[in-house]
Predict the structure.
Amino acid sequence: MSAALSALQQRLGYRFGQPEVLQRALTHRSFGADHNERLEFLGDAVLGLAVSSLLVERHGASDEGDLTRIRAHLVREESLHKLALSLGLPAVLRLSEGEARGGGAQRPSILADAMEAVLGAVYQDGGFEHARALVERLLGEVISSSDSSGDWAKDAKTALQEWLQARKLPVPAYRITETRGQAHAQTFEVECAVASLNLVHKGEGRSRRSAEQAAARAMLDELLAGDTPGSGLRD
């Protein structure tokens, strides 16, 4: 096993009995036939179950709607992208030369997929308890400190619209700025614009809706960060 993969396992806190499974999880479809899409599919389900079980364990008093919104925040592309970056996945991804030259190792959708594939690989190699333990190491602190009443826990587009309407500002406008990939595996880039504040943010996703949510979340994050006395964003 390469030193890079050995170091990744240390960061994960999990040692693979079948290192080739981890290698597959880090292999984009552009690199070859033995790629990570099946592990990504598996990891998506594992992540959802692990996060759900941790939320019920730590926020037992919250209702289903609140738990669903928190889970959606934790498993969205942006969150997975950040986890992938924190683990150093860009340095160990296997991509075709063309994909690598095009910046694929930094593309949020590719990194989010790889993060799910790594979780699927841990599950396949060691079972659910090891996969859940990894999710807890990566997200446990955020899950414990999550406030189900916070604006971030809502659907991002809904939360953004409510924030703007509360300040008597027009709702945002969304438009697709780019579509990449083949029809069965497209990535959408969407722009969210709040003309009254002269702000524009972009988001990516594997569907138009998820891209709109990512763009709305980026916009809301900026607005909430600036929503302090003297910022000009409060009422």
Q: What stands out?
A: Residues 149-153, 228-235 have pLDDT under 50 and may be disordered. Strands lie at 173-180, 187-194, 199-205. The chain is about 55% helix and 10% strand. The first helix runs from residue 3 to 12.
